[in-house]
Amino acid sequence: MAAPSEGLTNPEAIYYDVDPKQVLAVRLFGGVTGVNILISVIIVLVKAHENPHEYLLAVNLILSSLIAVMLAWWYRKGHLSADKHWYMALVCAVILLQAITADLYVFNHVVVAKKHHTIPAVNTTTSKAPTIGPG
């Protein structure tokens, strides 16, 4: 193989730390996760009018997405090493599962009926008092 001439770059040289296809895959996965989180937060906020405790699900999703954005920012700025793209994919997968679980909880939440306290029926038709033993 011939040596590259002066002033030209070698097409076989590697000029990146991580394969650009892997970086693109992680970015696409992060985008899909972001859209899913947005949809989940909207669904949870709409359904939370029926049960105010479900606002906690929305807060949890928002805080988790803020943590993911902070990690992505650190990765982009270089505070995390370049080979940590797998960690970003893992964080996105966990948050994606969290969003799916929140959606399932909101739509399949079983409302337990309150138990009504009833007075037990008393048999008043018998004239003799109950006895112990053969009758």
Describe what you observe in this structure.
By secondary structure, the chain is mainly α. It contains three helices and no strands. It has helices at residues 20-47, 55-77, 85-107. Helix 1 runs antiparallel to helix 2 (55-77), helix 1 runs parallel beside helix 3 (85-107) and helix 2 (55-77) runs antiparallel to helix 3 (85-107).
Short description:
This protein has helices at residues 20-47, 55-77, 85-107.
CA gyration radius, whole angstroms: 31 Å
**Span between termini:** 112 Å
User: Low-confidence spans: pLDDT under 50, at least 5 residues?
Assistant: none
Outline the biggest β-sheet. Answer: none
Shape descriptor reads: rod-shaped
Question: How many alpha or pi helices?
Answer: 3
Q: Find the count of extended strands (DSSP E, 2+ residues).
A: 0
Secondary-structure element order, N to C: HHH
The average pLDDT score comes to 81
Class per helix and strand makeup: mainly alpha
Task: Using brief descriptors, characterize the structure shown.
rod-shaped; 135 residues; 0% strand; mainly alpha
Strand and helix layout:
Elements: H1 20-47, H2 55-77, H3 85-107
